[in-house]
Each structure stands twice: as C-alpha cells, then as structure tokens.
Amino acid sequence: MSTAARLLDLLALLQVPRSWPGQELAQRLGVAPRTLRNDVERLRSLGYRIDGVRGPAGGYRLGSGARMPPLLLDEEDVVAVAASLLTQRGHVAGLDESAERALAKLEQIMPPALQRRAAALRVAVVQVPADAPAAPVDAEVLSVVSAACRDHEVLRADYRRHDSATTERRIVEPYRIVTWGRRWYLYAYDTVRRDWRTFRMDRLVPNPPAGPRFAPRPLPVDDVAAHVSRGAAAAAWTHRATVVVLAPAAELAHVPGAAGTIEPLDDRTCRFTTGAEDLRTLAVHLGRLGWDFRVEEPDELRDELRTLAERYARAAG
C-alpha cells in the first residue's frame, strides 16, 4: 500500500470520534508502530490536529485545529452534504453563493457514479414555495446568538417589532434557537420585562460583545420547539376561537401543536383554543377534528358554521 493510501485509511479511522490505541491502529493498517508514528506526524504537518494521550486508556484522537483541514467523506456523506446544500438555500442570508461553491467543489472531485447521483438531485428536486415569505437570518447574527446560547452569555440587541419600523433595545438571556418553516426564532429570558420571550431572528441585530455570563434558569416548557411554533402561529391569527370538544384530550393528540392549545376538562371533554386568518377557514378546520364540539366563543363562528352546514347539506342532496 502506498503512503498516500495509508494516510487516507489512517485519517478515515481517526475521524471516528474515539481514542485509538496505537497498537490497534498499527494492526488495522498492517504497519509497525514506528511507521504509524511517522504517519501521524505527516498528517499533523498537513494541518490535522491529532492528540496523543499516554497511559493504558490513551491513544490517538483527531482534534480541532486552528484551520479547516481537508475532510475525508464516504459516498453516503457526500450525497448527504449535496442534498443539504441543494434543499436548504434561502434560510441563511448571504450563504447561497457559498453553498453553490461548496457543491461545485464536491461535484468536481466526485467519482462518476456519485456525480450522476448529485446531478440527479439537481434535476429532480423541486421545493414547494413556503406559505409565508422567506425570512433568512444573517449568518453573523446566527453565529453571535448561537455562541451566546452555548456560553450562557447575556445578549444585548436591537429588536424591530412586527407592527413598527422602529427598534428597541433588548437585554436577554438566550437559551434556544428554533427553526420553523423558513424562519428562525430565539427563545430567551428578557431581563428587563422579567419574562420569557420569543424573538424573530431576522428582526434582531446583536450589539456585541456578549456578556457577562449568567446562571441558566430552568426552562418553563418541556418542548421549546412546540411552544415557539404555537406562539408564532398564534401571532398570525386574526380570528381566535375556543370550543369544547366532546372527546378526551388524548383523542386530539394528532392535532399539531401550532394549531392551538388543548386543555383537558374531564375524562370525556377538553377545551381547544385555536385561530385562523378568517372565520371560514376556522370553521373548516374545526370540522376536520373528527369529533363533536360546542362553540364557546366567538358568536360569529356559530353563524359561519351554520352557513357551512347548510352548504354541505345542499351538496349532499
């Protein structure tokens, strides 16, 4: 086996996230321990950081270096990266061109069989336009906010509300970034308002540096993604309704969290709070629950349901 081929095999083994005893690596490669040490030094000279740990539990492990070295990808890795680059465009502002360059580099060095698979993806994949306009977040904003979440650092930012062209200063403890549809949201604790808030990240402009560090608070909800998506959907409702569904809450488990909130009342009924852009859409959605229900509010929904019932009755003959 040539030295170059052996180095590629060694790199493929080291990319598995574990510590490799030197003796095991040498046996895998079919070389002497001295040759293995020389190969490790060759990889280090190419920019790969390979940490060596002494002792019975020691060995070699691939670490992170000061610069990005070349990666060794298998065929499934390449297809996964190509598919991701093709389908995730428009989510982060300013990265479409970088994604196209990265995909072109991959395609240039792919073997013919993989090139055909990547070309098939380009030709066959068509994305359905999102219901809401895309709201890509700036790459730098994403980097700053995600770092503040990871390091538990207070974030100061200017935030533009949906109903105003002006911005206001916010000081928050950031916890989670949620993606829903083609929008990004920050779930954070507002230290001035002393409450949990959700922020659209395309309206957020951080004012670095972040800090100081804060002690993480217990999250008030078990499922942050469901909580954020439900709140984001509710913010777009122009009409809200509350109905009592004549079924246990468990029977409505199929209802998406973004559609509204379900509150158990007893073993046989539950309260469903939901909304939509217009009453007709709301009436249709409630009819699709599959269970009888009673309208608590608003009264206008009752009129829409009667109109819809009469239309359905005429259609049925």
Sum up the structure in keywords.
317 residues; alpha+beta; Arc Repressor Mutant, subunit A; five-stranded antiparallel beta sheet; four-stranded antiparallel beta sheet; elongated; DNA-binding; DNA-binding transcription factor activity
Task: Please explain how this structure is put together.
The chain is of the alpha+beta class. It folds into 4 domains: 3-63, Arc Repressor Mutant, subunit A (Orthogonal Bundle); 75-124; 137-221; 237-316, Alpha-Beta Plaits. The chain is 39% helix and 24% strand. It is built from 10 helices and 13 strands. The chain has helices at 3-14, 22-29, 33-45, 75-87, 96-109, 112-124, 139-151, 224-235, 279-287, 299-316; strands at residues 49-53, 59-63, 92-93, 137-138, 155-160, 167-180, 183-190, 195-200, 204-206, 239-245, 260-264, 270-276, 293-297. A 5-stranded antiparallel β-sheet has the order 8-7-6-5-9. Strands 11-12-10-13 form a 4-stranded antiparallel β-sheet. It has a two-stranded antiparallel sheet with strand order 1-2. A hairpin with a 2-residue loop joins strand 6 and strand 7 (183-190). The longest helix is centred in the C-terminal third of the chain and has 18 residues, at 299-316. The chain is elongated and about 85 Å long.
